[in-house]
């Protein structure tokens, strides 16, 4: 099997850390693992496990002149763990479809929709799933017609790990925030600030997905759960697993997460992030189809707390990838 990591997005270093955790947890008696790194120029390299970072080290793949041709690798299944654009947005999944290889996670459509916060929120709204009020802009001049009240959050539409995300309390700071967001995408999304608790839940499965117990994120030394709080500042946030909730609330959160997962055509895995307002109303923030996979990332930690260990979780994800491929192959043969 292959673990594909790195990539051209702003989440390159996070992807490298995820790959290191996955590689170390895979049962080497069960899997023959090839490490396929993609540098920031888009070139592919076969990497040695000795290169992988240890602990919280943030590391980038060295660039090279030569590029590996991924189709030449004989792989039964691929675990693509490239976060963000050119990896989580359907582009890598499309390549893997062309290679006719089984792969972990959502397909082309689910990955693309999961990455585009604009399309994602419109689909959720159309299905009656609550989301925060938002506006999408492609030009800074359009903020003069902003209907939302300050403060607001500004994000690149196609990006994850809170890269390029900032909070704006005035039109002046909104301009600065938009300039930051436009470094990463041609579309920026402006969202209302939702007062309440920030909850996350992990979903696992294909046609019949299940949800983990929910966890809660409490930002401590940061105004919100930004990139630094997630990956750099060890004391930047408190993760409460499980979140302190009633049984009824847990059930409602899990049902909503699974519903969003299905509406957005996801598969394999996803982390669903949501808010709970003071009155108990749930609001979907976003879905992440290739969430962080370090040993301290929320997706695997929530499953560990739900009774599924990190290594067993990897086994299950690989099984789901193979099941999905077999299902497609059966369908293909039925039309031949």
Provide the fold topology.
Blueprint: E1 2-6, H1 12-25, E2 34-38, E3 44-47, E4 77-80, H2 91-99, E5 102-103, H3 108-115, H4 117-126, E6 134-137, E7 152-156, E8 166-168, H5 171-181, E9 188-192, E10 197-205, E11 210-211, E12 215-219, H6 227-231, E13 237-240, H7 247-263, E14 268-276, E15 282-288, H8 298-305, H9 310-334
Overview of the structural elements:
By secondary structure, the chain is of the alpha+beta class. The protein folds into 3 domains: 2-103, 3-Layer(aba) Sandwich (Rossmann fold), CATH 3.40.50.20; 114-130 and 196-323, D-amino Acid Aminotransferase, Chain A, domain 1; 134-192, Dna Ligase, domain 1, CATH 3.30.1490.20. It has 9 helices and 15 strands. It has helices spanning 12-25, 91-99, 108-115, 117-126, 171-181, 227-231, 247-263, 298-305, 310-334; strands spanning 2-6, 34-38, 44-47, 77-80, 102-103, 134-137, 152-156, 166-168, 188-192, 197-205, 210-211, 215-219, 237-240, 268-276, 282-288. The strands form 3 sheets. Strands 10, 11, 12, 13, 14 and 15 form a 6-stranded antiparallel beta sheet that branches. The protein has a 5-stranded mixed beta sheet with strand order 3-2-1-4-5, with helices on both faces. A hairpin with a 4-residue loop joins strand 10 and strand 11 (210-211). It starts with a strand and ends with a helix. The mean pLDDT is 90.
């Amino acid at each position: 099997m292959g673990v594909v990591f790195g990539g051209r997005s702003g989440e390159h270093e996070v992807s490298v850390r995820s790959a290191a955790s996955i590689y170390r947890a895979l049962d080497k008696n069960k899997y023959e693992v090839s490490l396929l790194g993609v540098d920031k120029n888009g070139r592919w390299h076969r990497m040695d496990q000795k290169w992988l970072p240890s602990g919280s080290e943030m590391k980038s793949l060295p660039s090279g002149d030569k590029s590996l041709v991924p189709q030449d690798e004989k792989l039964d299944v691929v675990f693509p763990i490239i976060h963000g654009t050119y990896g989580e947005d359907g582009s890598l999944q499309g390549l893997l479809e062309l290679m006719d290889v089984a792969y972990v996670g959502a397909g082309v459509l689910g990955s693309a929709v999961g990455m585009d916060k604009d399309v994602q929120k419109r689909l959720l709204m159309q299905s009656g799933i609550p989301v925060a009020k938002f506006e999408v802009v492609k030009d800074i001049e359009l903020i003069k017609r902003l209907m939302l009240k300050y403060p607001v959050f500004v994000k690149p539409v196609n990006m994850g790990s809170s890269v390029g995300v900032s909070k704006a309390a005035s039109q002046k700071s909104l301009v600065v925030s938009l300039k930051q967001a436009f470094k990463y995408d041609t579309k920026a999304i402006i969202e209302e600030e939702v007062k309440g608790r920030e909850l996350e839940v992990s979903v696992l499965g294909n046609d019949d997905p299940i949800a983990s117990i929910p966890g809660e994120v409490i930002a401590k030394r940061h105004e919100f759960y930004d990139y630094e709080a997630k990956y750099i500042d060890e004391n930047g946030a408190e993760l409460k697993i499980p979140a302190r909730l009633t049984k009824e609330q847990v059930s409602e959160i899990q049902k909503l997460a699974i519903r969003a997962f299905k509406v957005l055509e996801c598969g394999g895995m996803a982390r669903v992030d949501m808010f709970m307002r003071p009155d108990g109303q749930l609001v979907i923030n976003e879905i992440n189809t290739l969430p962080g996979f370090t040993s301290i990332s929320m997706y695997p930690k929530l499953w560990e707390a739900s009774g599924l260990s990190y290594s067993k979780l990897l086994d299950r994800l690989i099984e789901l990838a193979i099941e999905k491929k077999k299902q497609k192959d059966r369908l293909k043969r039925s039309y031949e």
